[in-house]
Amino acid sequence: MPDTSLVRRARKINRVLAETYPDATIELDFDNPFELLVVTVLSAQTTDRRVNAVRPTLFAAYPDAQAMAAADREKLEAIIQPTGFFRAKTESLLKLSQALVERFDGQVPAKLDDLVSLPGVGRKTANVVLGNGFGVPGITVDTHFGRLARRFGWTTETDPVKVEHEVGALFPKRDWVMLCHHLIWHGRRMCHARNPACGVCPVARWCPAYGEGPTDPAKAAKLVKTEGRA
């Protein structure tokens, strides 16, 4: 069992971040689990804004797994090119869609083991889909989540699966999905990898890493991003 003082401090940080970011949610646009799975795959090594920009054209052409599985490779590449690494991503989407059709009747499965068995789908993507597409508790350890969990002293692990389990033990399952949104929003807007805005951080008093960035409020305020998709 985790130390009770660590649990209390972790939950306090989450509560304050919830108050700071009342609108926190996934920043990828989607209408159903298939769209969510596809845009999450596309979001690797690019911004959510770029993925959201190609989404309408992409799903107008390929509204479901059956349509995408039969896609013309060059046409698909042309649509998703702005997201970067488009040849590799096209290959992933074609294989992923074909696997959905062949093994799951074109439907996105709602179980972690099934999701990670799909081509190009790891635990991070699977947990995004489970939490945001099906309401199934999961912890999404992206670069922001991992960085903040270590700064907050919730874990010293760098392996995403170990981070997932250690942080998960500090919170009830019902809080997991929103916890991820809170940390990712805070990481994108304030607790940057370089120069975190410590001087204006709402959870600074509970953060062991306070001082990694400027503590002067005026300097720190200039580092805050008001919107996280960029």
Structure overview:
It is a single chain. The protein has 230 residues and is mainly alpha-helical. The protein folds into two domains: 4-24 and 140-221, Endonuclease Iii, domain 2 (Orthogonal Bundle), CATH 1.10.1670.10; 33-133, Endonuclease III, domain 1 (Orthogonal Bundle), CATH 1.10.340.30. Helices cover 55% and strands 0% of the residues. It is built from twelve helices and no strands. Helix 9 (143-151) packs across helix 11. The termini are far apart.
- What name does the CATH topology of the largest domain carry? Endonuclease Iii, domain 2
Count every beta strand, where a strand is a DSSP E run of 2 or more residues.
0
What number of domains?
Answer: 2
Multimeric state of these chains? single chain
Give the end-to-end Cα distance, rounded to a whole number of Å.
39 Å
Question: Strand percentage, roughly?
Answer: under 5%
Q: What is the ordering of alpha helices and beta strands?
A: HHHHHHHHHHHH
Assigned CATH architecture of the largest domain: Orthogonal Bundle
* Secondary-structure-derived class: mainly alpha
Please count the helical segments.
Answer: 12
Name the CATH superfamily assignment of the largest domain: Helix-hairpin-Helix base-excision DNA repair enzymes (C-terminal)
